[in-house]
Amino acid sequence: MRNISVIGTGYVGLVTGTCLADMGNTVTCIDIDTAKIAKLQRGELPIYEPGLKELLERNIDAERLLFTTDYPAGLREAEIIFIAVNTPTTADGSADMQYVRAAATSIAAHLDHDAIIVNKSTMPVGSGDLVSDIISANLAYPNVQFAVVANPEFLAQGTAVADFQRPDRVVLGSADRDAASRVAELYLPLRAPIMLTDLYTAEMIKYASNAFLATKISFINEMARVCERLGADIKEVAAGMGYDHRIGKYHLEAGVGFGGSCFGKDVTALAHMASDAGLHPQMLHAVLEINHDQRALIVDKVQTLLGDLRGTTLGVLGLAFKPNTDDMRDAPAIDIIHALVAQGAQVQAYDPVARETGRAAIGDAGVSYCADAYAAATDADAVIIVTHWNEFKALSPAKLRAVMRRPVIVDGRNIYQPAAMAKAGFIYHGIGRGTPATDAANAATPARPVMQTRMARRPSVYAQPPRTLPKTR
Ligand SMILES: NC(=O)c1ccc[n+]([C@@H]2O[C@H](COP(=O)([O-])OP(=O)(O)OC[C@H]3O[C@@H](n4cnc5c(N)ncnc54)[C@H](O)[C@@H]3O)[C@@H](O)[C@H]2O)c1
C-alpha cells in the first residue's frame, strides 16, 4: 500500500483520492479552497456524486483519507503525487494551465523526498514536459529525484465512482518506464487493461477519446435534423445503428447536445492545438458548431409552437448538464433559459439536485426555481425537458396535463414516446422524431410572430419548410 497525495479535490481529484484510499492506500488530498477542505474534513461532500459519500465516510473513519490546505503536510511521505486541478478554457480556446503551473510550483517548493508526479488533469500534449520543467526549475531541495507520468482520467460525472473502480482501460505515459510501472501497480487490483505509452501519446489519447465521444453526439444530432426533415425517427435510427458493434450504442442519443466541463473544453483545446500545429481541424469545429446550434434549436421549437414568447410561462425540467450531477458547467439549460427569458418568457425551473448550483449559474431574472416537476409545469404554456433525469420519465402525463395551461411538450432528450404523449393529449415535439405536427399546435394556439433566437448563429434548420420527398418508384 502506498502513501499518496492528490492535489485538487474536484470531481476527479476527490473521486481518485477516495477510491485509492478505499483500495487500502493512505491518501492526503490537498486543495487551495479552504471552505471545500473544511467541509471534507467534516465528512461532507462539496459535490453531488452517487456513491461517493459512503466511500468518503468509510475511509475518513479508517484514517486512510485526509484533507488539508497545507502543501508541506499534504506532501509529507507521499510516494506518488496526483495533479487533478482544473484546466478550463482560455479566451483563445487553449487550455488554461495556470492551476497546473501553480500546483507544480507548490510541489517543487515543498517536496523534500523522491516522488512520482502523476498528471491526472486533462492537459495539452507536451504538458508532461512543462510540469517537469517547472518542478526542476523550482525545486527547494535540489537533490530530490522525480519522474512525471501522464495518467489521464476517463470517468464520467454521475457514474464517477463506478467508472474509477471499473475502468475500460488505464493509460500511463512516461519517459520513465519504471515510474509508469510503479503507478500501474496502484491500478492492478482494478483488473483493467493497462497501456504504457510515451508521454505525448497518453496525453493525446485523452483528447482524442473526448473528441470522438463529442463527435458521436454531434453526428447523431445532425442525423436527427435530417430525420426530422425526412420523416424518420432518430431513436429507431440510433438503435438500428447501435446494434452494429463497429458503431456501438453509446453516445448516440439525439438531444440538446453535450455540456459539462469536458467535451466542449477539450474539443476546443484540441482544435487549438491542431491549429497551432498548422492544421485545419474542420471536423472538430463542426462538432462544436452543431452542438451550439442544438441549444438554439430547442428555443426555435418552442417559438414555432407558441409564437411570440412574451407573456408565456414555460416549465423547464432539468438544469444540470446531465443526470446524477449538480454540475452546471456549460449546461445547455443556461443558454436555453437565458434565450427564453430574453424572448419575454417567464421560466419555472426544476432540477432534482441542481437547484442551488442552477440558480447560481442562471440567476433569478425571469426564472423561479420550483420544488418539483409538477410545480414547474403548473400554468405553463409548454414544458421543456432539458436533462434526462429518471424521475421525469416517471411523471404522470395526466397529472402534468391537468396542471399545465397548454398541453405542449418540447422534449429535448427524447425521453417520451410521441404516440403515448399524443394519446395523452399533448402536442409533443422531440428531437429528430419525424416531421413535427405543428398544425395541431397552431390550431390550439394562434401563433404570434416568431422572433429570431438570439444565440442562433445560422438560420434555424427547424424553421424552414419541410422538404417534399420525391415519390419512390
Ligand atoms: N469532471 C470530469 O468529469 C472530468 C473527467 C475526466 C477528466 N477531467 C479533468 O480533470 C481535471 C479536474 O477536473 P474537475 O472537474 O475535477 O475540476 P474541478 O474544478 O471540479 O476541481 C478542481 C479542484 O482543483 C483545485 N485547485 C486549483 N488549483 C489548485 C492548486 N494550485 N492547488 C490545489 N488545488 C487546486 C480547485 O480548488 C478545485 O477544487 C480537469 O483537467 C478536467 O478536464 C474531468
Report on this model:
It contains 19 helices and 14 strands. The protein is of the alpha/beta class. The protein has a six-stranded parallel beta sheet, sandwiched between helices. A six-stranded parallel beta sheet has the order 11-10-9-12-13-14. Helix 5 packs parallel to helix 6. The longest helix is centred in the middle third of the chain and has 32 residues. The C terminus is likely disordered. Bound molecules: nicotinamide-adenine-dinucleotide. Nicotinamide-adenine-dinucleotide (NAD) binds next to helix 1 and helix 5.
Key features?
473 residues; alpha/beta; Rossmann fold; 2 domains; 6-stranded parallel beta sheet; 14 strands; disordered C terminus; binds nicotinamide-adenine-dinucleotide
Counted up, domains total 2
CATH fourth-tier homologous superfamily of the largest domain: NAD(P)-binding Rossmann-like Domain
Overall pLDDT: 92
User: How many E strands?
Assistant: 14
Q: What CATH first level of the largest domain would be assigned?
A: Alpha Beta
The oligomeric status of these chains comes to single chain
Strand percent estimate:
5-15%
Query: Could you give a short account of the major beta sheet?
Result: 6 strands, parallel
Radius of gyration: 24 Å
The shape, in one word, is: globular
Structural class designation: alpha/beta
Which ions, cofactors or small ligands are bound in this entry?
A: nicotinamide-adenine-dinucleotide
Strands ordered across the widest β-sheet: 3-2-1-4-5-6
Which fold name fills CATH's third level, the topology of the largest domain? Rossmann fold
